[in-house]
Amino acid sequence: MRGARAFPIVIAAPSGAGKTSLAQELVRRNGDVVFSISATTRAARAGERDGVDYHFVSEAEFTALLDGRELVEWAVVHGCRYGTLRREVAAALALGQTVVLDIDVQGARQVRQRIPDAVLAFVLPPSGAELIRRLEARATESSAERVSRLAAAAGELTAFEEFDYVVVNDEFEVAVAALEAIITAESCRVSRHAGLRATAAEVAAELRELMQRSQ
Known about the structure:
Elements lengths: L7 E5 L6 H11 L3 E3 L3 E2 L14 E2 L2 H9 L3 E7 L2 E6 H9 L3 E5 L2 H10 L4 E6 L3 H11 L4 H14 L8 E4 L3 H16 L8 H19 L1
Parallel strand pairs: 1-7, 1-8, 2-7, 3-4, 8-9
Antiparallel strand pairs: 3-6, 5-6
């Protein structure tokens, strides 16, 4: 039987819920799962590398990507633009790989419209207090920026109903395992197996032949 048709999996969450850490670990543990590197106009944070963590581009370069229809989705998040490069997704799917899109709720909605075959997983924090603790612990934003992110998170939490799956990121290992299980289950979906009808017919014909021989 042919392998399942490759598909993208969107992992979206409020800022600080841990979606990026989950996405990175999912890729690290699974050789057939790859990360879609987004383009962004924001400045690189300490330790981030261009072409590895993000494609860091200027406002003009991002506009050119939009004008050239080179983005599957894009959004303005906390004053900066982010987008998923069409070529990144297409290249992974052509190789039969599951491609992970680490994006926000706005982007997930666009992917749903443009790639109906995509799987959408929403990551929930275990509590509001834990979300605040995680944002404070990473210390990558100012106090005002954290307040802005928390306000946005409060609005995004109700978006889970638009997704196919929900994963609560309370215990990291459990959350990663849940995402792996989602990919496994979706790979078994009948609609993703183009040669399934022919395979079933071949098995049925073989069975009939064996039954005739045994009579």
